[in-house]
Amino acid sequence: MMHLADFNLRRAADVDGARAKIHECMLLLTGDRQRASQAASAFSEVARALVGSDTVRVEVSIGRIGEARALQCIMVTEHQPPARLGADRHDEMHWRVVRQFDAGTSWVPHGIMDRLRSVLETKSHQELVEENYRLLHDKTTALNRLSLALSTVQDVDTLLVMLLQEASQAFHCEAGSILLAEEGELVFRHALNADASSRERLLVRAGDPVRLPLDRTSMAGAAALDGLVAVADAYNIPEDATFRFNPSVDRMMGFRTRAVVSVALNSNHNELLGVLQLINPRDPETLRPMEFSGEDQALAMNFASLASLALERSNLTRTLVLRIMGIAELHDPKETGAHIRRVSQVATRLFVAWASQRGWSEERILKELDALRPAAMLHDVGKVGISDVILKKPGALTPEERTVMQSHTVIGAKSALKGQRTALDAAIRDVTLYHHARWDGTGYPTRAEIAAVLEELGEDGSRVPEPRGEGIPLAGRLVAIADVFDALMSRRAYKEAWSPADVRDEFERMSGIHFDPELIELFLSDFDSYCGIHAAISG
Predict the structure, then answer these.
(1) Rounded to two decimals, what is the model's pTM?
(2) Is 244 a member of any domain?
(3) Any idea which of 40-54, 139-153, 312-326, 502-516 has the lowest mean pLDDT?
């Protein structure tokens, strides 16, 4: 038995190309057109019966029928074929149908095997057209899916993650990144590579990451100014190009950047929002490295146009949240922009760990993050309704003052939830009301206070559980940990920052008392990363 080639049949249109190959192989072996046609028809009958269920793998080889040679085709499928095809069991998962076509005993010219392999492995014009159509269909489908998804995304960080995932998948890229325009520079905000863990793929960078000047010395900078830059090999950029590639990140990550396309993200008013970069596209079937074709570059521009519209809109949501919290900061010096960003980053990272442990899909996790991120930033929005005398009091609060201070939870829920109800509204309700609830039920507000708030907002408060254990919504439990963590790690006018070791000990001690023990276990298992978030976001 001499193996010649393998190929896959995914749909009925693929069978015609494969049939032509079997016909040509039999002609090479026998020189008999009638025998070639009969073999091709017999192959086609089996292939068409199998390809409707799933992808069919075809193994072609030269075997023997008695003293004669035979062109043998083994068609392997996961689904049991019709009985009339005479399939035999191949292994625990696959079925196979074998067909042998008599090729006679006549002499075959030297080199015939190489010619047969060439026929079987070379893609026909029809196959190339079908493949290009399929690739184009995949990318335009991704565009349509992206358009629908981005029209509903509210949080800018969630948008960045979704955009990079969809674009990388559509072009079958090994890596990609998004840079945002901030204060006259380009700032890396999200990066993706094939080896990244699920957690890192769903989270944006904390703190101030790498910054690039807004000029033509980098590919991203040139794209920002010129609209698009594409290179076939980052290590062999033409001498007349203004930009050069810095391989230091490649060396650090053990990566090899090849083909790159960088596309500007511009608003409706032609204001630069950022740059989308896609790196190292591969053929989806063979995984062979490819370049970005002219068609790919045009589709990347379409991706960028869609993303720019959504990015502009989601930036408005983030700006609104930051402005609201800026008002709170005027009343309470602890409510800094850095504090709310750290609380949001810690809470979302912990949520991704929790959801991933439960096997949630990335799509479901991103949907939840879209509401959780901004809601976590607004956890103390109710403090705008608390007197400055109490908020800025340097010493201990009296019992009466403490009761007033605790009312910021219900004030936040009431002020933020008037009007329409969305997933974001629900997350804000859970965070503002419950982020001071305790696992053992000794926190605040009480069940009666929560029920009264919900009734005032037009919701049914009669079935509200006691705010303890899993009666506390997940968003509230997550932000409780993030808020206390940031308070302990930060210096205040009335205290110094705790050491990471002391903070860790405190959370171990309060597990099952103040905090959800399952979340604390996940939190402490990745404790250094949370400390890194605190260090990266200063202020």
Answers:
(1) 0.69
(2) yes
(3) 139-153
